[in-house]
Amino acid sequence: MKFNTNKHLNKIEKKKRNEVERKILSMDKDYLKPDNDLNNEEKRQFELIVENSPHLSNLDNFSLNQLIKNQSIMKNANQHFEKEGLVIDGKKSPYWTIYKQASSEVMTLLTAMNLTPKSRTKQIYVNEDEHTDPIKELMDNE
After folding, report:
1. Are the CB atoms for 32 and 82 separated by under 8 Å?
2. Which residues are CB-contacts of 131 (< 8 A; sequence separation ≥ 6)?
3. Bridge partners of residue 87, in order along the sequence
4. pTM, to two decimals
5. Is residue 82 a contact partner of residue 51, using CB atoms and an 8 Å limit?
6. Cα–Cα distance for residue pair 77/98, rounded to 1 Å
7. pLDDT tens track for 40-49
């Protein structure tokens, strides 16, 4: 996880921020639980994401539950498309609007939680940029 700000930080501020980031990332996932109103399939999906996403922490609980709920909304809307079609009585199905809104929310949440391939790749590059050469550091301090 990387907090992006436009503020230029001095060494002490960077160190403190890195400590906070490490603390957040190392938080136990004990409280990362699916909401009670999720059905069994949604709970399995929740657990699968938690098991395969080591960067998630307890702070992501609400967002992850929202992600699962919006995916379920998309699935239900899609089932209506299969039954009724996208056009009903010459008009766009109201489920299309529901699907579009849920899809947009899913993509926003996936990106925010670094669950898309692009966001995970971007995070890897950000972390690599933070890596400093110890020899260079020694030379800079002299």
Report:
1. no
2. none
3. 92
4. 0.67
5. no
6. 7
7. 999 999 998 8
DSSP label of 59: G
User: Length of the chain in residues, anyone?
Assistant: 142
For residue 12, give Cα distances in angstroms to 1, 22, 40, 106, 137. Answer: 19, 15, 47, 37, 15
CA distance 77 to 73: 6
Look-up: residue for tokens 């966001």?
119
Give every CB contact of residue 102 below 8 A, 6+ residues apart in sequence. 70, 71, 73, 74, 77
- Amino acid type, 33: K
69 to each of 115, 129, 134, 141, how far by Cα in Å?
16, 35, 46, 52
